Amino acid sequence: MEVVCSSCGTEYDFDEARVPEGGVTVKCTTCGHVFKVSKNDDGAAIQETSTPPSKTGNWQIKKENGDQLSFKALSTLQKWIVERKVGGSDQISRTGDKWTRLADVPEFQVFFQAIGPAPSPAQEEAPEDPKAPEAPKKKTKKKRMLAKKASKKKKKKTSKKASDKQKDVTLESFMEGGGVPADTTQDQNNSATIKEDSKSSPGESASDPFLDDDDPIKKWQEQKAKRNTMIGIGISSFMALLFLASIVNVLLTPSAPKKKKAPPPQAAMSQPDMLVRTLPDVLSSDNIQEINALLTEIDTALTNTAMDKGNQSLLYSAKGRLYLSMARMEKELAHLHYLHAKSLERMRPQAAQVAMDSQKSALKKAEAFFAKAKIAVAASGEALPDHPLVLLAKADKNAYESGMDLMRLNIQKARNVGLAYKLDAMVHYEAKVIVMLGDALNSMLKSDLSLVKDALSSLHLLLNSKWYEDKRIVYLSLILGITENKLRTFPDFGRIDRIKEGLDIFINDNPNHQRARILKKIAPDILPQKDARANHVSNKVEKAVDKLRSLRLRGRQKKAIKKLKALARKHSKEPAPLVELGWANMDINKPEKAMRYFDEAIRLSPTDPMANYGRAEALRLSGKPHQALEAYDKFLSISPRGPEAEAARNTIDTLIEILEMAQRNRKYRLNKMQKN
User: Fold this and answer.
1) Calpha distance 249→241 (Å, rounded)
2) Domain spanning 547-675: which CATH class is it, in words?
3) What confidence tier does 217 reach under pLDDT thresholds 50, 70, 90?
4) 452-498: pLDDT as tens digits
5) Position 640 pLDDT exceeds 70
6) How large is the C-alpha radius of gyration of the chain?
7) DSSP character for 490?
């Protein structure tokens, strides 16, 4: 049957078979309303209405000594039972008319069993009799725990057998049912089982009013679980500490030295092999003293008549490369003296003549060294013509003579056979250096600005790849930088400052490098000079422009433009603020206004690469493709290897394609109009 609470309207499914003859009192789990369900004359269960219980009503406890206690929540009674404030012989009542012993209520029997029997007053107050027989010893904690576990197992088995029939009886139904039933099974059958219908809320369910969050058994179980967890954590921590202590002990305890296996016997390196393998380090030092010392050792080794021809060939190849290195040094010095003489011939003709004499002397030394190198390289190819070191010596000789095709052919052969001789790493390194040195020397002798720029770019790539430990590469890049600024129509003072700074660093790191000191001495006469005050102002302006450029790149163009205008008015002869103003206007899509700033910057500095590139971009965005092509060509003539050169070439190709397409469309339209 369906039972509806008259107070809150909650519906329940109720089993009519469990309603006794005298009826049963039930309590709504939603609002606490108590009402009675009984049978009519026909034996059908009916619901009787009753008034909801007063929320202010209290339960009453009457103790054996006559004291009375009152409480509202059943959790309070559970707490008193655990604290032994009330006992099983005390009586409980709701209205004060009908009293029942607490021990007779099944719901409270669990708590009385958990706390055990209370000690009798006689036992508490009995004096000790020395002659009395010794009392039995108390159970140990372990025995008590085992006894509790055994009792729990027994209770679980009993409750499991009666789980299908037994249900919890509320205190109200027990009190209204007329006291303690004679048969526990009969009371369990007469107890009401209240279940909510599917119409009630999903989160609600019938619950036992005697079991709540303050259940002592539940608390004891939780405490036991926490205690077991803490014990496990403690054991794990202890084991971890033991493990760490063992590791520390092993690390700190000096172990007996292990007997190392003797390395396999290796063939002793012969003197020629040692000399040949030190060759790359000596060449990269670019030091004339170390080169002369190695030449002396090689000459001494060649006097040994018992040496086989293969080793002699390797020593001759090393000797030839050393002489070629010395010849190249003299040729570089001759080139510097030539530049020095050209710089002094108008203002200081006598000093220019001294420089020319120094050039001639250096060229004579270079020719003498090269003659010895040719003899040594020729002798090296007699016994081992296909050895990689011999092929490298031949390639080095070809590079000195500007025979670039033969040089590349010999280098390719050396790379092909390098792996077979286990010299592939050395061959790869030396091959790159030989190519760079040959291109640089060839560009200096021809005094071609484009060749110098190409060689300088290749050397910078090697320096960026951490080849700066090779002194040949560093020193040659300084010479090429000076040559480039000497050949330029408009010198780049920023690059000149970097060359001077790099030269100072090179001399500080290599105080015994004689040619670097000569270069530092004549460089001020070769490089164009700028007024010191103007140079200071230019550097100051460039630093200010760099700060404003970062402001522009962060998206604050308007503020950057305002400050750049003020900087341009203050330094009207500096092109840097005007160039940056042009790019700032390009950012806000004002190419025509940007073009005016670029034109003014080009007027002040015709070879400024960024000003010319910006003007070309502004013309393209303004819809003037033909003028933009001319501007891009001018930019590439100024900076063919610059950071924006590749982008400029790609843009030129795109513009040409667009113009060709437009021309074809125009022709097509004209032909169509003529046909019509």
Assistant:
1) 12
2) mainly alpha
3) low
4) 878 877 777 666 555 557 888 888 888 888 888 777 766 667 777 77
5) yes
6) 53
7) S
pLDDT in tens, 90-144: 888 877 777 888 878 777 777 777 776 655 544 444 444 444 444 444 445 556 6
Question: Per-domain residue ranges for the chain?
Answer: 1-56+145-235, 271-529, 547-675
Tell me the C-alpha distance between 57 and 271, whole Å. Answer: 114
Per-residue pLDDT at 326: 92
Strands (E), 138-257: 195-196
Collapsing DSSP to helix, strand or coil, 527 comes out as coil
Q: How far is CA 271 from the centre of its chain?
A: 50
Question: Which residue type sits at 564?
Answer: L
**DSSP assignment of 52-96, as one string?**
PPPTT--EEEE-TTS-EEEESSHHHHHHHHHTTSS-TTSEEESSS
Backbone torsions φ then ψ of 242, nearest 5 degrees: -60, -40
pLDDT value of residue 211: 42
Q: Give 435 or 208, the one with higher predicted confidence.
A: 435
Residue 454: closest CA among 404, 518, 393, 379: 404
Extract the runs of DSSP E, i.e. beta strands, from 74-154: 91-93, 100-101
- Can you give the three-state secondary structure of 634-655, one letter per residue? HHHHHCCCCCCHHHHHHHHHHH
**Residue 620 Cα to chain centre, angstroms:** 41
Question: Is it the case that residue 323 has pLDDT exceeding 90?
Answer: yes
| Non-local CB neighbours of 213 within 8 Å, separated by 6+ positions | 75
DSSP 319-377: HHHHHHHHHHHHHHHHHHHHHHHHHHTTT-HHHHHHHHHHHHHHHHHHHHHHHHHHHHH
Contact 352, 344 (CB under 8 A): yes
What does the H/E/C string look like for 588-633?
Answer: CCCHHHHHHHHHHHHHHCCCCHHHHHHHHHHHHHCCCHHHHHHHHH
Residue 433 to residue 435: CA distance in whole angstroms: 5
Three-state SS string across 281-325, please? HHHHHCCHHHHHHHHHHHHHHHCCCCCCHHHHHHHHHHHHHHHHH
Separation CA 44–CA 46 (nearest Å): 6
Buried b (16+ CB within 10 A) or exposed e, 611-634: bbbbbbbbbbbeeeeebbbebbeb
CA distance 334 to 337: 5
Question: What is the longest distance spanned by two Cα atoms in the chain?
Answer: 148
Which one-letter amino acid corresponds to residue 575? P
